[in-house]
Amino acid sequence: MPLTKRAVSPVNISRDTIPPSIQRDELQCTANGTISNLILQLSSLSKHAENIFGEIYHDAMVIHHKTNTLQQRIDRLHQKVDQLDATTDQASLNEANMRKAFKSSMLVDQHILDRSTLPAALAEQYAMCDPPPNLDALNQFRDSPTPALFLYTNPSFFFDLWKKETLKDVAERPRRVKSPNDGSKSPKKRRKQPQGTGPMGATMYNDGQQRNRQISGSRINQQNEVFSFPEEYQAPQALGLQLNFRNQNSHPANLSMVAPLGMTMHHHPQQNVHPNQQRSTGLPPPPHRASPIIKRPMDPPPSTGSSTLDHLPPPDMSILSIDDEDDDLPPPPPSLLMQQSIVHQLPTEAPSTMQFVEPSAAPPTNIPPPPPPPPPMPISTAAASFAAPAPKDGEASSSAPAQPKPLNGHGDLMAQIQSGYKLRKVQRAEDEAADKAALEANDVAAILKRRMDQVMGNDSSSEEADDDDNEWDD
Amino acid sequence: MNASEAVQRQLKDDWDNREFEQVLADNIKSIANFLSTFELSCRSKLATLNDKINLLERKVEFLEARVTKGDTLS
């Protein structure tokens, strides 16, 4: 709706009624009245014109003043720059460090539609309006502290509403936003511990245990079946585990182990009980075939730490964790088909694997080792008789959810180390004090800033929380 | 006959007056129109100029802060 800013006063200039005293020359009278109204219109128009020109003149003067000031500043700046000499004026490093951070003194426009910025013409229009009724007289009969007039008219109603809405979220947000960070924090700590201690020989035991825990689980077993295939057939995640395979293959028990592709799962229970017997069979170790699961149950963790893990760089853990995360996805269906097909293609190897089984009865061996990850029996029907599904499911459920999280924590850690964020803390107190003062003055910018701090800047608070972790973890 | 002539003359004068008034009113409207347009264009140009000067002020302020020496924390 267009808002009338200036109204030229007499309208309907020739519709006046002729006074009854006039008996003749009525037309002449009407013409005179019309012309006089036109003159009134002209005068009103001149008044508005004067008003317009006055405002424009005022604005122009403000700009002129600004321009003059700016010109002076530029002149001074020009002089200063002219006086600068690169040869003599070498800024000392200390001085550069002590320099204050630049802070603009420019004011941000706000409350643009406030009463104080009302143009004079509109203020006149407003002054012509009827004043609100004197409802303040009823204040003494009211229970609530709000004046009665505010129920009738409240110019700052929408601003107050907006401010309340904005700041309400600010008060609520911190808890809500922080909760996901808190959830990811504990796994991060768990994650960091093996990483920091990994390279050191003394803590290898923990490291080995950690890895055993990570790779245990039915789905991982299925993946290990997949890993026994050549690298070209595998997704990159399989390659990530190759490092681990090689280290495990160096172990004597692993060297003796041939993973006969589809049948690897049947070995686990027996291997736990008779590692030496299998070693005596002395089959040539194919480089990539042995699956980590086979070795893991019987591996004494200290031996793996001393022999293999010394060569393991800490990033190996991250690679493992990536695999674990990928393991959360359902195993690719082709692997199952390929596995079964290869089992059929290699019937000669099946008897050899069965020989391993013979020395110990298969059913009893399934029961004793609770820690060993049981084979992925659902894949092939032949494995069903040997596999122990119950412990496998329990382990999978316990280990699988914990594994995906540590990687996130690790990535965060690296990003935080790379970015310097410690300086931010120092200014926080001052900023918050200034914000509070501005909030009471209905400062729009301050309110918005607080809001933005909550919506966008919560990463800073989480970074601080993570900072604490770093300090004692590293 | 005289009466009708007088009436006709009055009507003719009235039409002339009305034409004159119409010309006056039109001119007043055009003046008002011009004033509105003039104010609008002046204000927009002044606002543009003001923005540019504000930008210049910011730049000059930043440059002053860059050039200023001895304005340290100590």
UniProtKB/TrEMBL annotation, chain A:
Chain ranges of the WH2 domain: 409-426
Keyword Ribonucleoprotein set for record: no
Keywords, in A-Z order: Actin-binding, Cytoplasm, Cytoskeleton, Phosphoprotein
GO function terms (MF aspect): actin binding; Arp2/3 complex binding; protein kinase A regulatory subunit binding
Extent of Acidic residues compositional bias: 461-474
UniProt biased composition (Pro residues): 361-378
Predominant cellular place of this UniProt entry's protein: cytoplasm
Cell compartments where the protein resides: Cytoplasm, Cytoskeleton
GO cellular component, one term: cytoskeleton
Quaternary structure annotation from Swiss-Prot or TrEMBL: Binds actin and the Arp2/3 complex.
Family to which the UniProt record says this protein belongs: Belongs to the SCAR/WAVE family.
Biological function: Downstream effector molecule involved in the transmission of signals from tyrosine kinase receptors and small GTPases to the actin cytoskeleton. Promotes formation of actin filaments. Part of the WAVE complex that regulates lamellipodia formation. The WAVE complex regulates actin filament reorganization via its interaction with the Arp2/3 complex.
Protein name: Wiskott-Aldrich syndrome protein family member
TrEMBL record, chain B:
GO CC field: cytoskeleton; SCAR complex
InterPro entries recorded: BRICK1
Keywords assigned: Coiled coil, Cytoplasm, Cytoskeleton
A molecular function GO annotation: protein-containing complex binding
Gene Ontology process terms (BP): actin filament organization; cell motility; regulation of actin polymerization or depolymerization
Domain of life from the UniProt record: Eukaryota
Subcellular location: Cytoplasm, Cytoskeleton
PANTHER family cross-referenced by the UniProt entry: PROTEIN BRICK1
Family membership noted in the UniProt record: Belongs to the BRK1 family.
Protein name as annotated: Protein BRICK1
Organism: Caenorhabditis nigoni
